[in-house]
Amino acid sequence: MSTTHVQLDPQGRLLHFLTVEGLTRRHLTEILDTAESLHSVAERRVKKLPTLHGKTVVNLFFEASTRTRTTFELAAKRLSADVLNLNIATSSAVKGESLLDTLRNIEAMQCDMFVVRHVQSGAAEFIARHVKPHIAVLNAGDGRHAHPTQAMLDVFTIRRHKPDFPNLQVAIVGDILHSRVARSLIHALSILGTGAIRVIAPRTLLPAHVENLGVQVFHDLAYGLRDVDVVVMLRLQRERMESALLPSEQEFFQRYGLTGERLALARPDALVMHPGPINRGVEIDSRVADGPQSVILEQVTNGIAVRMAIMSITLGNHARPLEETA
Amino acid sequence: MRIAIRGGRVIDPAQQLDTVTDLFIAAGRIAGIGEPPADFVAEQLIDATGRIVCPGLIDLCARLREPGQEHKATIASEARAAAAGGITTVVCPPDTDPVIDEPAVVELIRRRAKAAGQTRVLTLGALTHRLRGEHLAEMAALRDAGCLGVSDGGRTIASSRVLRRALEYAATFNLTVFLTPLDPELGQGLAHEGQVATRLGLSGIPVAAETGIIARDLELIRDLGVRVHFGRLSSARAVELVARARADGLPVSADTAIHHLHLSEIDLSGFDSRCHLRPPLRGLRDLEALRAGLASGVLGALCSDHQPHEPDAKQAPFGDTEPGLSGLETLLALSLRLARDGVLPLSTLLERLTCGPARILGLDSGHLGIGASADVCIFDPDAEWRLTPDTLRSQGQNSPFLGWSLQGQVTHTLFEGRLVYARDAHD
Q1: Per the domain annotation, does B75 fall within a domain?
Q2: Does B16 reside within a domain?
Q3: What whole-number distance in Å separates Cα of residue A115 and Cα of residue A102?
Q4: What ipTM goes with this model?
């Protein structure tokens, strides 16, 4: 019935990775620890492990993306998988062909894993419910719903600098309403027992009853940033002005943009994060994005190890027969 | 055909009748209750012992998909489903293809329904031409062709100017206007704007998308004297607005769909596309208020809001699916659950399914008075059954109630004095 059941096997192991919501600290720690051990691979001269040798990973992108797709591709290749990239713009390309038909066709190519991005919330779960049982599905972003690998690389990055989650205050700033990154990150931080999670945005960019997700709501950036250990800035899309959610980029930057002055209100060693791509001068000042507290590029690097970890774990759980741990 | 229905508990809310007695039918009409008319010799006997005999149900909103969407359902297929649900009259909104904005379409539907012969299909005519909300439809001609009222189906007229004139024009011809209030701008969304939509990342439809339009419409009709019926209310505040308007003496009525009394936003968990509905399933407080509104009579009718779909229409990520559920065959059983839960007495409940909607339509029907058309529903109030795809007669299998255990099952349906459904024959 709920999402957690689809992505877990009867023993509670991850078969797919669709959402962080409903997972346990054990699941997250396993991913983070595995990612930690894989992180060093990138520093080797030969950056490959044989883990997924002979497996085929399909990047099934119904919505455009460069960065996420690339890091998934690199992650799969470093695990020695064969990778197929399919970019299917929902609007034009597959007129007449249903999502299920598309899936059946790609399934027929004998793949082992789908990495899915789709404009509709719930698309990854829909796909996971309908693929053949040997295929693992990773959610690379579904509508406003979830972007769980991004959340995992974010908490991985935080943990490398500040591992004591119960004593952390994390602020997430900007367009929470449309952000799958924010939703997944809030769940991940909650599961890890983070001391306080704040969201900072004007009312037009906050979803209804957001406080029920276990966050504190702030409308004033200066007030909300006080004493935080981590600041996560979200990307602001231009369309938000056209749909009457904001008056202008200028006013948004004035009120909610992260400048050096505002960052000074946070802890002196506060981390500055951003899922990218950055709009310089809209949600974040260039000097902050490139400054000493920024770990934005580190997030990108960490994304590869985290995705390698999630790929290994889910495909590993598919390979293992159920009786083994029963 | 002369039929005697023996030994059932006859409940006819219009006559405030609730007693174990016999019902006699001749020449398609109710010929007697308790006492047969003189010289009555039954050609067929129906033993209704232990069962409830009531007027056939009247469903204020069912989309039969014909003409225009025969891949989803047809009048013939859905009329059979209605008969199995104890429904002897369905009201079809005008958003067919072509739209019911000319008499020829009314005639086409009438012919197909007559050929099916399972249930009475009444039509609402268009309020505006092509339902576009710009120019008035030929309402007088539609009325003469047999339309019982006018409506723009699921659409809301954005222009207050056009709506006001449409209301005035409808009033000229004594037509009731059927509105389903949802703001075309604010109503763009996939789910009730609440905590479930927030979690699932589905775009929200606030309650104000419904209440803002009701408030506007109520002000527009205040001085016009036009009869307006608000269909498919979904929120507590909508019930309040209509209650106040009725207390003020405005000629307004309202209904809700049965599923809004049993499901809420919580049922969307797991992105269940069968619960993708318009108006959306709302919070539990709304559900309770709708139940209370049904009990108090602010909501004078319960309907199925039947919208059958082909499987593909629901087999996609939530936002790519079509809204609506298949509801004809669960209307009665889900309604009976309300009486069992103590929401309202059984006779009041049956009133909301029979003479209540008839009154809204301006019809003298939905009762078992002598001489009335013999539209009768006989059900076993205790029979337990499970809704499965094989039990559904509708071409649309898109019911969120599949797998539910239901209590109360139609055993016989008579339409114009003919037995159009008998469960025993299907066992």
Answers
A1: yes
A2: yes
A3: 14
A4: 0.92
Going residue by residue through chain A, which has 326 residues, state the pLDDT in tens, using 9 for 90 and above: 444 579 999 999 999 999 999 999 999 999 999 999 999 887 888 888 999 999 999 999 998 888 899 999 999 999 999 999 988 875 444 556 788 888 998 898 889 999 999 999 999 999 999 999 999 999 999 999 999 999 999 999 999 999 999 999 999 999 999 999 999 999 999 999 999 999 999 999 999 999 999 999 999 999 999 999 999 999 998 778 778 899 999 999 999 999 999 999 999 999 999 999 999 999 999 999 999 999 999 999 999 999 999 999 999 998 765 544 43
Residues of chain A positioned with their CB less than 8 A from the CB of B191: none
SS3 letters across chain B: CCEEEEEEEEEEHHHCEEEEEEEEEECCEEEEECCCCCCCCCCEEEECCCCEEEECEEECCECCCCCCCCCCCCHHHHHHHHHHCCEEEEEECCCCCCCCCCHHHHHHHHHHHHHHCCCEEEEEEECEHHHCCCCECCHHHHHHHCCCEEECCCCCCCCHHHHHHHHHHHHHCCCEEEECCCCCCCCCCCEECCHHHHHHCCCEECCHHHHHHHHHHHHHHCCCCCCEEECCCCCHHHHHHHHHHHHCCCCEEEEEEHHHHCCCHHHHCCCCHHHCCCCCCCCHHHHHHHHHHHHHCCCCEEECCECCCCHHHHCCCHHHCCCCECCHHHHHHHHHHHHHCCCCCHHHHHHHHCHHHHHHHCCCCCCCCCCCECCEEEEEEEEEEECCCCCCCCCCCCCCCCCCEEEEEEEEEEECCEEEEEHHHHC
Check CB contact of A122 with chain B, cutoff 8 Å. yes
Contact A129, A6 (CB under 8 A): yes
Q: For chain B, what is the domain count? A: 2
On whether any CB of chain B is under 8 Å from the CB of A31, the answer is: no
Judged by a CB distance cut-off of 8 A, whether residue A185 touches chain B is no
Residue B305 a catalytic site member: yes
**What pTM did the predictor assign?**
0.94
CATH, domain range A3-146+301-325: 3.40.50.1370
Do residue B76 and residue B32 come from a single domain? no
CATH at residue B346: 3.20.20.140
Of B361, B384, B409, the residue that ends a domain is B361
Q: What topology is assigned to A148-296 in CATH?
A: Rossmann fold (3.40.50)
Domain limits for position B381: 3-53+373-426
To the nearest whole angstrom, how far is the Cα of B285 from the nearest Cα of chain A? Answer: 15
Q: A141 CA to chain B: closest CA distance, Å?
A: 11
Cβ within 8 Å, pair A99-B204: no
Quick check: B198 and A3 CB within 8 A? no
CA atoms within 13 A on the CB side of B263: 25
Q: Domain boundary at B331, B361, B391, which?
A: B361
The full set of domain ranges for chain A reads 3-146+301-325, 148-296
Q: Are B385 and B409 in contact (CB under 8 A)?
A: yes
CA atoms of B355 and A128, how far apart (whole Å): 48
